[in-house]
Amino acid sequence: MPERRERALDIASRARAEAVLAAHPSTVAWLTGYVADIETGPSPFALSPLALVAGGGPPTLVVSRDEEEAAAATGCAVVSYPGFGLGPMNPVEGAAEALERTVGGRMVATEPGALPASLAARVSWVDAAAELAAARAIKEPDEIEKLRRAIALCDTGQKEARARAAPGVSEIELWADVRAAIEVAAGGRTPLLADLVSGPRTEEIGGSPGERTLTEGELVLCDLVPRRDGYWGDSCATIALGEPNATARRKHRAVREALERTVEAVRPGLRAGDLDELARSGLDYPHHTGHGLGTAWHEEPRIVPGGKTVLEPGMVIALEPGAYADGEGVRVEQVVLIGEDGCEVLSGHELEL
Amino acid sequence: MPERRERALDIASRARAEAVLAAHPSTVAWLTGYVADIETGPSPFALSPLALVAGGGPPTLVVSRDEEEAAAATGCAVVSYPGFGLGPMNPVEGAAEALERTVGGRMVATEPGALPASLAARVSWVDAAAELAAARAIKEPDEIEKLRRAIALCDTGQKEARARAAPGVSEIELWADVRAAIEVAAGGRTPLLADLVSGPRTEEIGGSPGERTLTEGELVLCDLVPRRDGYWGDSCATIALGEPNATARRKHRAVREALERTVEAVRPGLRAGDLDELARSGLDYPHHTGHGLGTAWHEEPRIVPGGKTVLEPGMVIALEPGAYADGEGVRVEQVVLIGEDGCEVLSGHELEL
Questions:
Q1: Count of CB atoms within 10 A of residue A5's CB?
Q2: What does the pLDDT read at residue B2?
Q3: A116 vs B114: CB contact, 8 Å cut-off?
Q4: Which of B170, B171, B189, B232 to mutate to test the interface with A (most CBs of A within 10 A)?
Q5: Which of helix, strand or coil describes residue A121?
Q6: Whole-angstrom distance, CA of residue B137 vs CA of residue B154
Q7: Contact A288 B86 (CB under 8 A)
Q8: Residue A56 confidence class, pLDDT cut points 50, 70, 90
């Protein structure tokens, strides 16, 4: 059994429950490797997948019949309910019945912020959402491998952004090229969270690509967060179109140095708040310094002012200091894996202006 | 008040509730015009938006602070809770408190298959999900306008697919061009459900674009379902690369004729099951003949065998007969708006092979 399932069962046991019922797609992916489609919102034919982890054998996934084959390919047991078809659509009742049958009267430790009320009504449960979210912070080797592959997609996307960003191109056209490069490299559709903004929009920290046309001498801020095999990569670079002005160069030097000293300082035993303070010195950005990365695109440990989490080996964190003022913003970001002593930088993209 | 809010309040009243609490993003968009981001799954900083519709004034949206401005732009009242920031992440408790405050002890008619258990625990509720879903079937003029605009994006995407599909191109490369055309036309990121398969994959009805390379003489099946302003378009065409074989031409003629006679037959008073039977005559496809389209990409009325729904003016339905056999599949699809007498075809894309 992967160590994370044992850790999840410990959480259940401390909550006086007999099993874990994962309801959040990130927790389901973490415990089973089963990755739900997310790009087009809730399906009319299925609820979000559920996973029951009890002692002994593999977890049981509760999914619609359409997902049965993919769910079984993870090595998990599968209980399914009717999905896409010609009959009446009632995935809520289908999932509720399948869940009740699967849980069979056991008390479960679950995530009631993700579990629909109709399903929660069919089982005896206790809330263990915060503990499960915290447990996800330490990655196992198979997870680190998936994160490396997701970050490789970031590198591909950042390279394309740098190659294609040019005066006369619109943000949404640049976006299309970047997304295409990532999806062609991945060999299929790839969920992608992103900031892609240009010129004065860079001062707003982030935003979705729009119709604005890029102009000589300005900056493009590109933060790419693709999901591959259920794990999210993260990356940011700021690209100058032509010769950057002196202020942009100064900001860039400051955030680049902040990132370097932060990466250099990362080691087990350090508190998140202390790392945040080190990064922030001489800078004044309104957002976090960093965050964990895994089956969610922002998770523990959060690198924020006063953050009490103590860094541990196996944590994977994205670090992203920035500087935003006078109509222009700069941010650079790398992902690191915390080892026994220091950290390994997983990101390979260019950080220059 | 838009008629649909009155219809929703009637549903609440019949369920002996004082208000409607919309919890499914499709129902929230339908009642308020507020469209939630969906492309990157559940946010760590916010739950899915909620909307309370009571008598009198505009609905109240319960959203994270990050969504406050966009939510207020719909003309709705807004109650917000902390979102993205430097403090602890606890959107579940934030949303639960905000919801409790907003509902204030009223009994609500809601969607417990979409409402998280943590939120449902804070209000008195009764299940009205099926009635709300059924009520969405009749569209008002502002909704029809949004559907037209979403279908215009389908036309753009289908045109690009036809222009770019060529031997030597991979499915995922073709997908990148199609998606780029749609997003550039929309001026921003656009959720997009799609089948994009080639050659023998067309027999499998649908599927996500992969690494397969298109080859001379084979078919490409392209079903594009983009969301614009919260409303989904739908469209399908089958494209031959070079000269199609005789079997493909025969299949195409049969499904094209099935679509034509179905569109011609659509009128108020017709039962969904009878329309399905007419479309299916001489064909043997395993899926529905059609479905409603709105803030969900598949909703009432479903055009399926035995379907009892009686068609009414204001319904918008996608019709999509197909033929799949001997290693090759063909499907064509158009969207129609049911009027007082017959229907108007909203789709403008090419249906030829």
A1: 18
A2: 87
A3: yes
A4: B189
A5: coil
A6: 21
A7: yes
A8: confident
Work out the average pLDDT over B53-71: 95
Say how far apart CA A129 and CA B89 lie, in whole Å.
Answer: 12
Question: CA nearest A171 in B: which residue?
Answer: B188
Q: Which of residues 156-215 of B touch A (CB under 8 A)?
A: 170, 172-173, 175-177, 179-180, 183-184, 187-189, 191-193, 208-211
**Token digits for A259?**
């990132």
Chain region(s) in chain B for CATH 3.90.230.10: 141-345
Q: Is the pLDDT of residue A1 over 80?
A: no
Q: What are phi and psi of B219, to 5 degrees?
A: -105, 155
**Distance separating the N- and C-terminal Cα atoms of chain B:** 46
What's the CATH architecture for B141-345?
A: Alpha-Beta Complex (3.90)
- Shortest alpha-carbon distance between residue A1 and chain B (Å): 28
Tokens 């959060």, residue?
A: A302
CA distances in angstroms from B229 to B147, B150, B187, listed in the order given: 9, 8, 12
Bridge-partner residues for B170, per DSSP? B213
> Distance between alpha carbon A103 and the CA centroid of its chain, in Å?
29
User: Rounded to a whole number, what is the distance in angstroms from the first to the last CA of chain A?
Assistant: 46
B16 touching chain A per CB within 8 A: no
A19, A54, A61, A279 from A105: Cα distances, Å:
11, 13, 17, 50
CATH 1.10.1200.10 assigned to B3-135: no
Residue B205 CB: number of other CB atoms within 10 A? 18
**Count of C-beta atoms within a 10 Å radius of residue B284:** 9
Average pLDDT over residues B160-180: 98
DSSP B204: G
- What is the biggest distance separating any 2 CA atoms in chain A, rounded to whole angstroms? 67
Contact B99, B119 (CB under 8 A): yes
Question: Three-state SS string across B51-102, please?
Answer: EEECCCCCCEEEEEHHHHHHHHCCCCEEEEECCCCCCCCCHHHHHHHHHHHH
User: Using one digit for the tens of pLDDT, what is the confidence trace for B216-229?
Assistant: 999 999 999 999 99
* Stretch(es) of chain A classified as CATH 3.40.350.10: 3-135
Residue B82's alpha-carbon distances to B94, B150, B292, in angstroms, are 7, 33, 36
Take residue B107 and report the two structure tokens written for it.
């009994």
**Other beta carbons less than 10 A from residue A17's beta carbon:** 21
Q: How many residues does chain B have?
A: 353
**Residue A55: its pLDDT value, please?**
86
Q: Which of B38, B87, B116 comes nearest A40 by C-beta?
A: B38
Whether the per-residue pLDDT at B160 is higher than 90: the answer is yes
Which positions 219-258 of A are in contact with B (Cβ < 8 Å)?
Answer: 225, 227
How far apart CA B140 and CA A65 sit, in angstroms, is 35
